[in-house]
Specification:
alpha+beta; 4-stranded mixed beta sheet; 5'-nucleotidase,  domain 2; 22% strand
């Protein structure tokens, strides 16, 4: 065994030595042409296919697993939408469930996401893991931010300027592209109070121009992907023999 290792080492060293002694050529010009490549005409590599196939079958099996059922086609819209409300509600619910498991003493008041992060509607009927990956293809983690009341007001003004975003835990009126009446868990916004906002790490870091998330009082990671939160919630509802549905409830409205 040791002899084989030494032979291999000698071969590698010899190759490196020969490479170092190779002649050095200077580039004096170049020529370019277009070469048409037809992927359909390229022969398949049977060895590579044989190596990849077991992993593909395993992945397909996981992605095609039915995890629940949806009552209807659920899509996003503005100022609120069925998908907006559903995903925001799920993130708020699953965040606080995870907080309870972690025993960190934190209860998130509000969930805020972005419309751009919801890449596909939730189909009617059987729901697979693949469907959730299509909605949320990014590995965004849930992050909780503690914000002062003034920052939260800035957040609601941003929601109003965007004419609505996926929101849970609060109700806001929009008037002249600014936030009007604001209630959080049925209580008016208190500028002298701190609030816990659950969102994605992408948005927490200022993505989608959400600069109001910068310099929070605290930033808490719970090591939980947004996508996993959605999958877990659907599986939990299925275990309770419940289907997935959503509704509009005027959590964001025009005054």
């Amino acid at each position: 065994m040791h002899f084989k290792r030494l032979t291999h080492l000698f071969t590698v060293i010899s190759a490196l030595f020969l490479a170092s002694c190779a002649s050095v050529f200077l580039k004096t010009g170049s020529d370019a042409s277009v070469v048409k490549i037809d992927s359909l005409a390229a022969p398949e590599d049977s060895l590579i296919n044989a190596l990849v196939l077991p992993y593909k079958l395993s992945l397909d099996s996981q992605m095609n697993e039915i995890i629940g059922y949806s009552e209807r086609l659920i899509f996003k819209s503005n100022p609120e939408g069925l998908l907006n409300n559903l995903i925001a509600d799920i993130v708020l619910n699953q965040t606080n469930k995870k907080n309870g498991e972690l025993k960190n003493g934190i209860v998130a008041h509000i969930a805020l996401l972005n419309n751009g992060g919801l890449r596909a509607p939730l189909p009617e009927g059987a729901l697979t893991t693949r469907n959730i990956y299509e909605i949320m293809p990014f590995d965004n983690e849930i992050v909780i931010l503690e914000l002062k009341g003034e920052k939260v007001l800035e957040m609601f003004n941003f929601i109003a300027a965007c004419k609505g975003l996926p929101l849970a835990g609060a109700v806001v009126g929009i008037k002249d592209d600014k936030a009007g009446k604001i209630t959080i868990n049925n209580v008016p916004l208190d500028l002298n109070k701190n609030y816990f906002i659950t969102t994605s790490d992408y948005l927490a870091n200022g993505g989608d121009k959400m600069s109001f998330f910068s310099n929070p009082v605290r930033k808490i990671s719970i090591n939980y992907l947004v996508r996993d939160a959605i999958i877990d919630y659907i599986k939990e509802q299925t275990a309770l023999k419940k289907t997935i549905d959503a509704k509009l409830d005027n959590r964001i409205y025009f005054e």
